[in-house]
Design brief:
Layout lengths: L1 E6 L2 E6 L4 E8 L2 E7 L1 H6 L7 H6 L2 E7 L7 E4 L4 H4 L14 H23 L4
Antiparallel strand pairs: 1-2, 2-3, 3-4, 4-5, 5-6
Length: 125
């Protein structure tokens, strides 16, 4: 059975048969799918909790962007995204980023996360 939580710009699902927790976020042309854990799922929707930030701390599975800045693009980070999130109405542009560019984009995101963490800790780069 599927159990859901919903908020502004996000939706999360617990599949008790597969024992998996997944979530989607969407806002102004950006659409993301994540695998999250039980603790994140439990905290979603609590007062004084940034649910979007919690979801983004999970494992990124899929990303679709349709903005005026560039062409619509999909990024498949985990090939099993559709099987992990069968409940999600998956947004797709049909323009899938090649695997090599996806690897580069993920590396850039990881570097940006590291840079942000250093800034929060007061450690310059």
């Amino acid at each position: 059975m599927l159990h859901f939580k919903k908020g502004l710009g996000w939706k999360a699902c617990y599949d008790d048969e597969k024992n998996t927790y997944t979530a989607k976020t969407s806002w102004r042309g950006d659409y993301h799918l994540y695998e999250i854990d039980a603790e994140i799922y439990r905290r979603l929707g609590e007062l004084d909790t940034n649910s979007d930030e919690l979801i983004r701390s999970g494992r990124h599975l899929y990303y679709s962007q349709d903005s005026p800045i560039g062409p619509p693009t999909d990024m498949v980070i985990d090939e099993n995204y559709a099987a992990l999130c069968p409940w999600a109405e998956i947004q797709t542009s049909g323009n899938v980023m090649p695997e090599q560019l996806t690897d580069i984009a993920i590396e850039l995101w990881e570097n940006e996360k590291t840079r942000e963490q250093r800034k929060k800790q007061g450690n310059p780069e």
